[in-house]
Amino acid sequence: MRLIYPLFVLIGWLFLSGCNNSTSTEDIEKFESAFGKANSTGLSILVQEFEKTLLQRHQTSFVSQAYQAHLESIQNLHIFEDWLGYQQRRDSFFVSVGKLDSDEFWFKPDTVELVNGHIVEKHYHTNPITGELTRASRSETLQIYQNSDSVMNLSRQLRTFNMIGRWMYGLTSIEHPTPFVKGYIDAKEAAGDISMSIMANAFLHSKPNYNDYMVKRIILVETYY
Question: In this structure, are 9 and 95 located in the same domain?
């Protein structure tokens, strides 16, 4: 059932978002206020770099055509089987702008790591007063009978979509989201991590306005490679 429900959400998105609505200035301001000034500035810089790459890669001078070709290439080739390698490339791009905190988009689940002969347990918890997500850790001396291989394997878990990060907080702070943005929020709340090819297919069928502030950022976050 967990897999079927998100599929219905995506199908509904295709019917709801097939129009060229644009995010209003007021809603952009609400998003940036919730997402944070530094994060908003950093993401805007990445959008500019992303568009330069797309224009060169697809040999066009029109941004909308470049976005369309980008999504079609993902949809048709069905690439990105190496999720860990993809995440490493994506994370490297996002951290290239020091102002942007990639943990607001994706984070590692609770993990256990082996550090200098100690087991370090790391986990996230939400501050009950501020609602902010913080990282905590607890260290114990490694016992001789403990399986260090299994500990190290746990530390290699993939990063997953951060449902309570500032990216989602910013999106849900938009008072009047366009059908495209509303569909994206619903899909992420239902499924979290979604295959890039599935997202590209949903984006293409929704016929988005590639000049829209939020559309640019959503496509970057979900389909950068």
Answer: yes
Please count the structural domains in the chain.
2
Structure tokens belonging to residue 163: 């449902």
What domain range includes position 136?
A: 109-154
Taking alpha carbons only, the member of 198, 181, 209 closest to residue 74 is 198
Contact in structure between 183 and 222 (CB atoms under 8 Å):
no
HSE (CB half, 13 Å, CA atoms) of 44? 11
Residue 100 · residue 39 · CB < 8 Å? yes
Q: Are residues 38 and 80 in the same domain?
A: yes
Same domain membership, residue 173 and residue 86: yes
Phi-psi region of 78 (alpha: psi -120 to 50; beta: other; left: phi over 0): left
pLDDT reported for residue 129: 55
User: Both 29 and 75 in a single domain?
Assistant: yes
Which DSSP string corresponds to 18-72? -S-----HHHHHHHHHHH-HHHHHHHHHHHHHHHHHHHHHTT-S-HHHHHHHHHH
96 and 113 together in one domain? no
**Residue 137, φ and ψ in degrees, nearest 5:** -145, 155
Instruction: Give residue-wise pLDDT tens across range 77-123.
Output: 655 456 667 777 888 888 888 778 888 998 766 554 444 544 444 54
pTM over 0.85: no
75 and 118 fall within a common domain: no
Contact criterion met (CB below 8 Å) for 69 and 223: no
Helix (H, G, I), strand (E, B) or coil at 124: strand
